[in-house]
Amino acid sequence: MTHHNKTLGEFIINKQSEFKYSSGELSRLINSIRLAGKIVNHEVNKAGLVDILGNAGGANIQGEDQQKLDVYANEVFINTLINREIVCGIASEEEDDFIVIEGRNGKNDNKYVVLIDPLDGSSNIDVNVSVGTIFSVYRRVTPEGTPVTIEDFLQPGNKQVAAGYIIYGTSTMIVYTTGHGVNGFTLNPAIGTYYLSHPNMIFPDTGQIYSVNEGNYVHFPQGVKDYIKYCQQEEGDRPYTSRYIGSLVSDFHRNMIKGGIYIYPNTAKDPEGKLRLLYECNPMAFIAEQAGAKASNGVKRIMDIQPTELHQRVPFFCGSKNMVEKAEAFMQNA
Ligand code: AHM
Ligand code: MG
Hints:
Layout: H1 8-15, H2 25-45, E1 55-59, E2 65-67, H3 68-83, E3 89-92, E4 99-100, E5 112-120, E6 131-139, H4 150-153, E7 160-168, E8 172-177, E9 182-188, E10 193-198, E11 209-211, H5 222-232, E12 241-242, H6 248-258, E13 261-264, H7 277-290, E14 294-296, E15 316-319, H8 321-333
Parallel strand pairs: 3-5, 11-12, 11-13
Antiparallel strand pairs: 1-2, 3-4, 5-6, 6-7, 7-8, 8-9, 9-10, 13-15, 14-15
C-alpha cells in the first residue's frame, strides 16, 4: 500500500483557516522562511567542502566572533523576506538595530514583524555539529502602512502569533507553531520538499535528561547548583543523564522528543544569562508551551516578561513541565 505523507505546502493550505487574521499573509511568511531555510541548509551542508569557514572579520553587537555562515544565513533570511515584501519589519540577532521594510510604493501594508536568530550555535559549524535557525512572529502594534518602530518588536512572548526553528541536523527539519500545537517537517533534500514527519509534537511531562553547561558550575546560582545535585542523586528514576550539545535548537529538539530540561542560568560572567529573550527564549518558550512544556527564567514565565531592549538576555529554564517546576522550586528555596 502506498502512503502519502503530507508536505509542508499541503499542510499550510489545509491549516490556513486556523491562522489568526487569516489573509494568507502568515502562510506566505512561513513559506518564505521554509524557502530561505532550504537555501541555508544547502550552504550549511557543504560547509566542510568549501573554504567558507572562519571569521568574517567583524564581530556582532555582543562582541562575539561571527562566522561567515552566520553572515550568509542572516542575508538569506533578510533578503528573502524583504524581496517578497512579506513583513513590515525584521530584527535579527546579527543586526544592531531592527530593519524597516518599505513597500515598492513607499508604503507597506503587511502586518507582521519577524525576529530571527539566523544561525544559532554557529560555533558548532567548524566541527560538523548541528546548528539551527530560530524565528518569532508578532503582529505589529503601530498602525499598518506606517514605518515600524521599536514598540513593534518589544512585545512580550505571549503576543507571538507564530514561532519555530529549523534544525540543520542529520536530517533538516522545520518545527513550528501558530498557536495550535507543534508540528515537525523533515526535508527530503533530493526533491527539496518538507514532509510532515512529526505531527502534534508533545513534550513528555517528565524526563531523565538535563542539559546545562556544567563547566560554569562554580558561577551558577545556588538554586541551579542544588538542582544539578538533585539530578545526580541516586533515587527513584535518578540519576538523570547529562546531554549538552551547546546548540540550543538541537538540545531543545532532543529534549522535546525524549523528555528533559535545558538550563542556561545567569552566571557570574553573564549576570543576565547568555541567551536572548527575543531571538531565542521567546520562540522556544512558545513552542515548548504549545507542546505542553514550560519555559521560565527561574522565577517567572518567560513569555510574560516585558522586553525593554532588542538584544536583552535572560536566564532560561525550559523543558518537561515537572522538571522545570522542580528546578523553580530549588531556585525559590536556595
Ligand atoms: P550564539 O547565539 O552565539 O550561537 O549562542 C547561543 C548558543 C546556544 O545555541 C547554546 O545553547 C549556547 O549558546 C551555548 O553556550 P555555552 O557554549 O556558553 O554553553
Ligand atoms: Mg543565538
